[in-house]
Amino acid sequence: MNLVMVTTTRRLFGAFSFLVSPLVLGCGADPDPGPAPDVPPISWEDCGGGFECATFSVPVNHDAPDGRTFSLPLVRRPAAVPSSRIGSLLVNPGGPGGSGVGWARAAQIILPQALKDRFDLVGFDPRGQAGSTPTIDCVDDLGPLIGLDPTPDDDAERAALLAGADAFAAACKARSGDLLSFVGTNHIARDMDLLREALGDEKLTYIGFSYGTFLGAVYAEAFPERVRALVLDGAIDPTVSGDAFIKGQALGFEGELEAFLADCAAKTSCAFHSGGDPWAAYDAVKAAVEASPLPAPPGGTRTLGPGELLYGVSQPLYNKSQWKFLAQALALAAAGDGSGLLEFSDAYVARSADGTYGTSFEVYYGVTSVDLAFPADPQVYQALTTELQVKAPRIGIYLPATALPSARWAFSAWRSNAPISADGAPPILVVGSTGDPATPYPWAVSLAAQLSSGVLLTREGPGHVSFLRGNTCIDQATTDYLVDLKVPPQGTTCK
User: Fold this and answer.
1) The domain 3-136+180-241+418-494 belongs to what CATH superfamily?
2) Among residues of the chain, what percentage have pLDDT more than 70?
3) Are strands 69-77 and 204-209 parallel, antiparallel or unpaired?
4) Out of 17, 181, 210, 369, which one is annotated catalytic?
């Protein structure tokens, strides 16, 4: 499921967002950085609101720089106090598929003033993603993929699920071709180093959320001497395989759903209070959806099936501020109207009111399928589903099916599940939340331990990622690190 920092509503896994050492090969393109080509300066133009915009060209294949190119959109907001400017601050909001351009435009409103004063805020859309050209393209309609039954009961249903995953993977290959072998994070890290050079920065200052933590870690492994400061918030563990990644998220979202239901049970004002037993009420909704998709709304043409239930419930679990709306949507579903949950599901998969889809879902599969080593044997995911019937029966049980397109992908992963140490890099700040459903806290602990210079900063509480979420302790420690290179004491916890 998608891994992205969200501000209002957004997706989940994308955990997937989710990672690795560019010096360790799986199969696929060699991630060795090699000699850096000459990088032309960027031609910025005013694009309103105090921002400057540009495009940045990078080679599709860094080992054949005179061939095809990707064009990456850029946005920059210059430092408010030029005399105190430190350099550029690059950001990646996660996904993969999140727009760094869009995030930079929105986040400048809530960034600490010290960062706005001292840095040029720079957002970019990575190769194949968001506003870059070309972008990963698979299908016009994601409905058939989302509508697959994630918990098949017999051989015929299992065959239909596998056939649907095969069809999606084949469609991606048919439309995007060999570009799919050049969209891994190993290539994006090299793009980011070219961008650093073009911006005139001797060393990189960077914030990566969710999937963006993997990009930052891969960059540090390839270019440790070019790191100034990296904040990796909502970390992915580079040592997890594709199936372990899915299991981690399944348990993470199950745990966050349990926290939501417990919170709702304790508050009579919760719309899904259900006489103090929202667990039973949720189970009844899930059973009803699995028996026959709910109309959404009654009398309409759309329905809520198990796939839409997965995304509709998971999406608001990213942020506790959305729990009251999840309660309202579940109360509607309990009354036979799936429209509230379907609206959340649509936001997750970037479906517009006119029935068209954005590219973020396809980008997620395009990148994670070559970043993570997903076992090809479908029995692995069937066995995981069986395990989750006990460990995560309410929502996590649906996740193994979402990995099948990656298991059937036409292009191999470029790396094994090797740890990232980034020997020689300066201190790197890894931020983790104890209640993060999409990038579970143990992943942050693991990444901080793998990095030779990793420093772990913990937030106690629910929700995905921690910086700019209203926690003063996290925000101050992160800002002090970015500005003054002052790291908090190892193991600092913010409540």
Assistant:
1) Alpha/Beta hydrolase fold, catalytic domain (3.40.50.1820)
2) 93
3) unpaired
4) 210
